[in-house]
């Protein structure tokens, strides 16, 4: 219990730090929301002479694009790899190795603390933007209780899976001094394979490949559940695969972490 209190304190401090920059956070989210205008116009043009595309109606695609844009900022743990890399390069990791604190747990609760402010802002944007869009028939909000629960649980697993992916990416700094180019490349690839740019259904070959990789289970699966595009059997299967990948990536993170610590030599702090 005392151990958990330490990480709850980390979460609170992280949230308080984010509150100091709430204006910047709101502005960042508003700019992200404004970027939805271009995709909205693009997809309206694409659907001008058709009703369906890869099994998606216009309202499905608009809903998908809006959800991936907004949820992507909440579920994708992009950024923690830079923090980990910096801690390793500057020797700040040493303070976690000799103190009674788990570095992975510290990074996780620090990330959740930062995401809490994002969650509040996202809820505000949902009420300001998406409810009117729903009234106009461009955004789907009618969810059954079972679908809503499955969506929320899948989104929860998605953020855990994303955390382990980017945590492992950050540990590459144990072996590479400069990782920025690699991080930019992998971050873009991860987001694309997560379905953050287009519904993966529109790329049949890519979708087959992505099903055996963990990336689509960060974002694509929760949004597909929200849209009601999956049968209950497929929902259970998808969530089951999410849980397996969470366990697998946790195991990989332990192996990489232990191997990396043997190579670590403290410099700086």
Overall description:
- The chain has 269 residues and is an all-alpha fold.
- The protein has one domain (2-263).
- 72% of the residues lie in helices and 0% in strands.
- It contains 12 helices and no strands.
- α4 packs antiparallel against α7 (103-135) and α4 (58-75) crosses α11.
- The radius of gyration is 20 Å and the shape is globular.
- The two termini are 30 Å apart.
- The model has no long low-confidence stretch (mean pLDDT 81).
Task: Describe the secondary structure blueprint for this structure.
Layout: H1 2-19, H2 22-34, H3 37-46, H4 58-75, H5 80-89, H6 94-97, H7 103-135, H8 145-170, H9 180-193, H10 204-210, H11 220-227, H12 232-263
Helix pairs in contact: 1-7, 2-7, 3-4, 4-7, 4-11, 5-8, 8-11, 8-12
Q: Structural class from helices and strands? A: mainly alpha
How many distinct beta strands?
A: 0
User: Kindly, what is the distance between the CA atoms of the first and last residues, rounded to a whole number of angstroms?
Assistant: 30 Å
Number of alpha- plus pi-helical segments = 12
Stretches with pLDDT under 50, minimum 5 residues: none
Overall mean pLDDT stands at 81
The arrangement of helices and strands along the chain is HHHHHHHHHHHH
Estimate the global geometry from the Cα principal axes.
globular
Beta-strand content: under 5%
Radius of gyration: 20 Å
Could you give a short account of the major beta sheet? none
Q: How many structural domains can be distinguished in the coordinates?
A: 1
Q: How much helix, percentage-wise, in residues? A: over 70%
């Amino acid at each position: 219990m005392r151990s958990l209190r330490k990480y709850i304190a980390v979460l609170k401090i992280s949230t308080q730090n984010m509150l100091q920059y709430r204006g910047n956070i709101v502005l960042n989210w508003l700019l992200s929301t404004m970027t939805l205008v271009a995709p909205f116009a693009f997809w309206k043009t694409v659907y001008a002479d058709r009703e369906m595309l890869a099994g998606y109606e216009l309202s499905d695609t608009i809903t998908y694009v809006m959800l991936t844009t907004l949820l992507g900022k909440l579920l994708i743990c992009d950024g923690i790899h830079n923090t980990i890399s910096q801690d390793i390069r500057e020797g700040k990791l040493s303070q976690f190795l000799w103190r009674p604190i788990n570095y992975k747990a510290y990074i996780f609760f620090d990330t959740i603390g930062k995401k809490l402010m994002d969650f509040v802002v996202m809820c505000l944007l949902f009420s300001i933007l998406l409810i009117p869009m729903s009234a106009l028939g461009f955004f789907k909000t009618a969810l059954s209780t079972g679908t809503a629960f499955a969506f929320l649980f899948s989104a929860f697993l998605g953020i855990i899976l994303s955390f382990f992916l980017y945590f492992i990416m950050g540990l590459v700094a144990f072996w590479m001094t400069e990782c920025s180019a690699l991080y930019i490349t992998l971050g873009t690839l991860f987001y694309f394979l997560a379905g953050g740019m287009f519904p993966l259904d529109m790329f049949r070959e890519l979708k087959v490949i992505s099903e055996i990789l963990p990336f689509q289970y960060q974002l694509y699966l929760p949004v597909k559940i929200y849209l009601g595009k999956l049968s209950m059997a497929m929902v259970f299967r998808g969530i089951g695969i999410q849980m397996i990948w969470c366990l697998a990536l946790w195991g990989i993170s332990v192996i990489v972490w232990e191997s990396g610590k043997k190579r670590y030599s403290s410099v700086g702090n």
